[in-house]
Amino acid sequence: MLALLSLIWFSHLCKNVDRIENRRPVIGGFVAKDLGWRWVFWIMAIFKGILTIVTFFFLTESHHPTIQRKRAKDTDMVLNKEVPKVGQVLFRALMRPMRMLIHSPIVTGLSLYLALIYGYLYLLFTTFSTVFTEQYGFGIDILGLAFLGVEIGCIAALAVLSWLSDWLQDRLTKKYGESKPEYRLLPIVLGIPLLPIGLFVYGWTVEYEVHWIVPIIFTGFSGAGLIFSFLSTQIYMIDAFTTYAVSALAATSVIRSIVGGCLPISGLPLYSDLGYGWGNSLLGFVAIVVSIAPLLFWRYGEALRKKYDVQFDE
């Protein structure tokens, strides 16, 4: 979420916070060895608590209808809209994402796509400990260093994407005379090859116990591919669904959280049956197949948005 906010509101601040968060796996091993595993969770709880307090006091309102009502109240204006009751707001907030998931092919398709790549990320994270201890003899203290490749890849992709997304949007808008949300999907073209390349090389170099730096470097390729795909898709949904963007993102969050929690369970059995080489190759082949989804929405997204209008009245 911090990475997404960095592209929308205050990139110079959130990028730094995101880097701090990404270093948690790196320092986690040293904390667990010196202070005990419980302190890994205590440190995260303290950090999140501070961040929650800072967010509560300093993050400004971004929901346009709420801002409009507040301005009207401050200036004694009367809006021709009835203020909904709390129960109505909660019911709509719960039901609208599900309705969008059912009625919008864009939300459904991209939710499944994001769920898969999100699941890949956590499959890698949950198997790093086994892979690098068994294949390379990493101890608990330095095990977190295996996450540096993903971290560096994510940071590099975030730096490129924060500039590239707006640059492409402005350039294509000037070229074709109109702004379209689908322009936001173009950076995925960079991410599509990076993810499977990273998985292929990571898997086979681990299989043959090539020097540990090589698989770590190529996990960075996968990390960069994940960021290009993940954030480009979310930014597209924000532009495509405007007022209901939060509901669209909530729908994707539900699906990807389910898959992100379940898919990693298959990681070790997959490697046990197929080995690290073919196991990760299978993941790479699936990634290539599903990558057609965002390309289809780049080509036909505008037509689908018009045909399946989810800007329903409630």
Automatic annotation (TrEMBL):
Where exactly are the transmembrane stretches of this chain?
A: 40-60, 100-122, 142-164, 185-204, 210-231, 243-266, 278-298
GO MF, one example: transmembrane transporter activity
Question: Topology versus the membrane, per the UniProt entry?
Answer: Multi-pass membrane protein
A Pfam family of the record is: MFS_1
Q: Does the keyword Membrane apply?
A: yes
Listed GO CC annotations = membrane
Q: Where in the cell is it found?
A: Membrane
Q: Which family does it belong to?
A: Belongs to the major facilitator superfamily.
Protein name per the record: Major facilitator superfamily (MFS) profile domain-containing protein
